[in-house]
User: What shape does this take?
Amino acid sequence: EFYLQQPAPTTILVFCHKHGRIDKRLKVANLIRKHGVLFESKEVRDYELPKFITDYVKQKGAQIQPKASSMMADFVGADLNRMTGELDKLLIACLGKDNLITPDLVEQNIGISKQYNNFELQNAIIEGDVYKANQIVKYFEANPKNNPLQVTLAILFNYFSRLMLAYYAPSKTERGLVDMLSLKYSWQAKDYQRGMKRFSGVKTMNIIGDIRYADAMSKGVDNASATDGEILKELIFKIMH
Assistant: This one.
């Protein structure tokens, strides 16, 4: 605090406050704000990851296909240090290949299956493809480390919560849904247009309840012995029937 009261104008000094947000009411916070910049680096939320990935790759002079971006977001999550490290691998791998990161490239270099992932599970549910959905669930059950139940539940909850909101959109066009749901890309609206054809509003509400219950079961509520794989199987059955 003593130094901050009269900082040297020629000095560039950076203070890092880890493990939580600094109390802005503190004297030191006020001094930093008075003589410099108090910057809060907020954690990137799950739904913001695809845009972060696309922007990062673009800054490096390359492009990434939407499906590949979703695969990376699902697999790596919000750990940005790990994410940028994995993306850097892909950026090297895509050199000489039109500087384009594809699902095939992700599968070959990161170890994510392009057929069995949360992106494909959500798509199978929207399409009503019971066989494909069950195949993905079996794969998840056999590979729980790379496909944790909590990640799958979060993705499904996010989709169906937004689908519920889509019913209240003044306009059901792509542009109308992009505005209503605060989507980053217009192509995402098609998933909700297809979802509204597949599921009624009442069914969507019931599915949201089923996802909440599955989440509670995964944490031991009303569950004595069911595995994560069994919980997911039951949930997918309820969603698709």
Remarks:
- The CA atoms of residues 214 and 231 lie 6 Å apart.
